């Protein structure tokens, strides 16, 4: 139940570099107007960020491209996407993903 | 319950602005999803050798799923403090973009009040808030706090539960718990796509982001990959949107 000195500084440092990007645009951009093209650009940001994060999680393992049928995460992603589209439920999607990968790892 | 909320709203906010309690309610659909991710994060952190106190500290002052998974992995691998902090900085730079996307709705507030809103901003609360803005063309400050604080408490509880139960789970991967994070992103992406009327452009942007993220990750680094993919794909989306 202790906090080691090393981990203390890692957590403080990580918290700082997480806090600053979270608050800075909200604090500063309130002072300036964002032009229409800027808003249009920002509209696509969530789609782009999430697609990029999903792609990295699914296709890259240990710094290498994994597109073979041994990549169980890609297979698990299929029912996960399907449930997300059909149910529009975040919980259903996460549970489907976890159970799919668990079963795949168990039977493969 | 309904009456209570109605009274609260009519009393506190004259021009039908969404209340704190409405923010809490709008957070509810995401709670179980993030409960499972937070639980998974707690288990992974515990099995990486972190103490319950360290996990509590992380969930309170760091409060970022991807950063916590990364920190746990890199601490277990014996990485230096500097490299861990730099990696997390890169991964969380995407918050700059989320924060900027929300900023037009809170322009009327002071920097301090904007800081309070931003300090608890996550992918999840951003997703819910953007949906709210799409419906009402505005976001109320107290609604945003209700949303943020509910998600924050939920995350803390989930992390601690995962940490406490993590001591009995020797191999979280056999339970598929490491897939909680990608599955959450898949859910958030699909919900965002379905809530908009720009399906064709959105799919193009998503595919470009995928190609750049994978390419740059292989050639350079995964954290740069996310940033490059976001910058380029959003710009292409903006240009296509302008043309049509």
Runs of chain A in which pLDDT lies below 50 for 5 or more consecutive residues are none
Name the helix and strand elements of chain B from N-terminus to C-terminus, one letter apiece: HHHHHHHHHHHH
Mean pLDDT of chain A: 88
* Oligomeric nature of the chains: heterodimer
How many extended strands of chain A? 2
Broad structural category of chain B: mainly alpha
Radius of gyration of chain A: 20 Å
Helix and strand composition category of chain A:
mainly alpha
Keywords (chain A): Membrane, Transmembrane, Transmembrane helix
InterPro entries (chain A): Brnchd-chn_aa_trnsp_AzlD (IPR008407)
Protein name (chain A): AzlD domain-containing protein
Pfam family, one (chain A): AzlD
How does this structure look, described?
Chain A: Keywords: Membrane, Transmembrane, Transmembrane helix. Chain A: InterPro entries: Brnchd-chn_aa_trnsp_AzlD (IPR008407). Chain A: This is AzlD domain-containing protein. Chain A: The chain crosses the membrane at residues 6-29, 41-60, 80-104. Chain A: Pfam families: AzlD. The complex is a heterodimer of chains A (108) and B (244). Helices cover 76% and strands 4% of the residues of chain A. In chain A, β1 and β2 form a beta hairpin. Chain A is mainly alpha-helical and 108 residues long. Chain A has helices at residues 5-28, 36-59, 72-87, 90-107; strands at residues 60-61, 64-65. Chain A has a two-stranded antiparallel sheet with strand order 1-2. The mean pLDDT of chain A is 88. Chain A is extended. Chain A folds into two domains: 1-32; 46-107, no CATH class. In chain A, α3 (72-87) runs antiparallel to α4 (90-107). Chain B is an all-alpha fold. Chain B has two domains: 18-181, no CATH class; 189-244, no CATH class. Chain B is 78% helix and 0% strand. Chain B is built from twelve helices and no strands. The interface between A and B is large, with 78 and 103 residues.
């Amino acid at each position: 139940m202790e906090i080691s000195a090393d981990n203390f500084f890692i957590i403080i440092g990580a918290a700082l570099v997480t806090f600053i990007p979270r608050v800075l645009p909200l604090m500063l951009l309130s002072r300036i107007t964002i032009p229409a093209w800027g808003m249009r650009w920002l509209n696509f940001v969530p789609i782009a960020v999430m697609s990029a994060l999903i792609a990295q999680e699914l296709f890259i393992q240990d710094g290498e491209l994994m597109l073979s049928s041994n990549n169980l995460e890609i297979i698990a992603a299929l029912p996960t996407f399907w449930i997300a589209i059909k149910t529009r439920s975040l919980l259903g999607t996460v549970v489907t993903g976890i159970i799919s990968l668990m079963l795949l790892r168990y039977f493969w | 319950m309904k009456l209570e909320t109605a009274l609260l709203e009519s009393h506190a906010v004259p021009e039908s602005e969404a209340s704190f309690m409405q923010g809490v309610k709008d957070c509810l659909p995401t709670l179980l999803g993030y409960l499972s991710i937070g639980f998974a994060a707690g288990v992974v952190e515990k099995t990486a050798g972190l103490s319950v106190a360290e996990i509590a500290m992380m969930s309170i002052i760091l409060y970022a799923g991807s950063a916590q998974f990364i920190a746990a992995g890199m601490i277990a691998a014996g990485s230096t403090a500097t490299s861990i902090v730099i990696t997390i900085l890169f991964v969380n730079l995407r918050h700059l973009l989320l924060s900027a996307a929300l900023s037009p709705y809170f322009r009327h507030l002071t920097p301090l009040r904007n800081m309070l809103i931003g300090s608890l901003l996550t992918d999840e609360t951003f997703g819910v808030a953007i949906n709210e803005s799409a419906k009402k063309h505005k976001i109320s400050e107290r609604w945003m706090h209700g949303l943020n604080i509910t998600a924050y408490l939920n995350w803390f509880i989930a992390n601690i539960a995962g940490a406490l139960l993590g001591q009995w789970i020797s191999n979280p991967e056999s339970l598929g718990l490491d897939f909680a994070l990608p599955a959450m992103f898949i859910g958030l992406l699909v919900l965002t796509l379905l809530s908009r009327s720009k399906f064709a452009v959105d799919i193009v942007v998503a595919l470009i982001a995928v190609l750049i993220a994978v390419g740059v990750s292989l050639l350079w680094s995964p954290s740069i990959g996310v940033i490059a993919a976001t910058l380029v794909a959003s710009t292409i989306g903006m240009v296509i949107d302008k043309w049509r």
